[in-house]
Amino acid sequence: MIKLRNVFRSILIAAGMVAAPLAAAPAYADQPPNCWLDWNDENTAGIRCSGDRPFISSAQCGDGQLVQGEMATPGTTSYVYCSSRGESLYQPVVWHAYIL
C-alpha cells in the first residue's frame, strides 16, 4: 500500500510540474522575458515591459483579430483596446510584446 501511495504521489507531483508552466505560459513561445500582462478587463489588455528599449503590444480580440497597442517606454503600460473594434478581449488573454 505504501508503494502504491508513493507512486501516486510521484505522478501528481510530475503532473503539477508539467501543468503549472503550461498554464502560466504566454500565448507566444518567443515572448520577451521582461514583459508581462499588467492588467486586463473585458475589453482592454495592458502590457508592461522593463528594460531599456521601447515596445509595442498586441492582444487578440474575441473575433480572433490581433489589435496593436501604442508604443510605450520601458516601465510604462501599453494598452490594447478591443472595444475599438466593437469586440471584447479573447479569454484567456492572448497577448504579445514587440521590443523595438
Protein described:
- With 100 residues, the protein is of the alpha+beta class.
- The protein has a single domain (27-99), classed as Immunoglobulin-like, CATH 2.60.40.
- The protein contains one helix and six strands; from the N terminus they run H-E-E-E-E-E-E.
- It has one helix spanning 2-24; strands at 35-40, 44-49, 55-60, 66-72, 77-81, 95-99.
- It has a three-stranded antiparallel beta sheet, with no helix packed on it. A three-stranded antiparallel beta sheet has the order 4-3-6, with no helix packed on it.
- A hairpin with a 5-residue loop joins strand 3 and strand 4 (66-72).
- The longest helix has 23 residues, at 2-24.
- The protein is elongated.
- The chain starts with a helix and ends with a strand.
- Residues 4-8 and 10-26 have low confidence and may be disordered.
Mean pLDDT: 80
Main sheet makeup? 3 strands, antiparallel
Please report which band the strand proportion falls in: under 5%, 5-15%, 15-25%, 25-35%, 35-45% or over 45%: 35-45%
Shape: elongated
Given the structure, what is the number of helices?
1
N-to-C series of helices and strands: HEEEEEE
Side-by-side strand order of the widest sheet? 1-2-5
Question: Residue ranges: pLDDT <50 for 5 or more in a row?
Answer: 4-8, 10-26
First CA to last CA: what distance? Answer: 58 Å
Secondary structure: helix percent? 10-25%
Domains counted in the coordinates: how many?
1
Question: Based on the structure given, which CATH architecture is correct?
Answer: Sandwich
